Every structure is written in structure tokens, then in C-alpha cells.
């Protein structure tokens, strides 16, 4: 099984928070920064304010699946999604719509595909 390209270390998260560009909507905040790699990486931050571990893990699974399915993102980016409290009430389709909206606001969608 292929490993999911994720951001795990605190140093990478802090670097993206400090230097990366951010855009937000009602579901989450998206930080984007160049990673100088040949692939994209995803980091998900979901606070205990959002809900218990079952709720948070369900949200993280939805966001990872959305990231996996939408390959039209320009390569070489680190993307961090910080889930807001309203995120616990969002469905998969709400997250997908919000994700694509923020990707277009960051201008990281590859229009050639």
C-alpha cells in the first residue's frame, strides 16, 4: 500500500503557518507554501474544540479523501487545513466545495488537466 503524503512534524507546520499564504471560509483555513518536492503534502489540524476523537477523525478522513481525489493541484505544494468549529456540521460535499473554492482562491488548481 502506498504511503499518504502528509505533513507530520511540528517544524513543517510552524514553517507553513509563518511563511505560507492563508485563505479561509466557514469550514476551514487553508495555508499553502511551496515544498520544492515533486508531490504535494497535506497536513490537517483539528482541535478538540471541534468534537471528540471520533468526530475529528471522521473529518480528517473526509479531507484526506478529497485531497486524494482532486489531483488537479499544481505539484510541489504543502497544504495545511485547519478545521473550524463549524466543520463538525459540514458534509463531505460541503468540505469538497470549500476545498475547491480555497484552492481556486490560492490559484493552485492546474487548469491544463
TrEMBL record:
It comes from the Bacteria. It catalyses: Endonucleolytic cleavage of RNA, removing 5'-extranucleotides from tRNA precursor. This is Ribonuclease P protein component. GO terms for molecular function: 3'-tRNA processing endoribonuclease activity; ribonuclease P activity; tRNA binding. Keywords: Endonuclease, Hydrolase, Nuclease, RNA-binding, tRNA processing. It is an enzyme of class 3 (hydrolase). One of its GO terms (cellular component) is ribonuclease P complex. NCBIfam families: rnpA.
Amino acid at each position: 500500500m502506498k504511503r499518504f503524503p502528509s505533513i507530520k512534524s511540528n517544524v513543517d507546520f510552524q514553517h507553513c503557518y509563518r511563511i505560507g499564504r492563508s485563505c479561509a471560509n466557514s469550514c476551514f483555513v487553508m495555508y499553502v507554501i511551496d515544498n520544492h518536492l515533486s508531490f504535494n503534502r497535506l497536513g490537517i489540524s483539528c482541535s478538540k474544540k471541534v468534537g471528540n476523537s471520533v468526530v475529528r477523525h471522521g473529518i480528517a478522513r473526509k479531507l484526506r479523501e478529497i485531497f486524494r481525489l482532486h489531483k488537479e493541484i499544481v505539484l510541489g505544494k504543502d497544504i495545511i487545513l485547519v478545521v473550524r468549529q463549524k466543520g463538525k456540521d459540514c458534509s463531505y460535499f460541503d468540505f469538497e466545495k470549500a476545498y475547491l473554492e480555497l484552492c481556486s482562491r490560492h490559484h493552485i488548481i492546474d487548469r491544463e488537466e
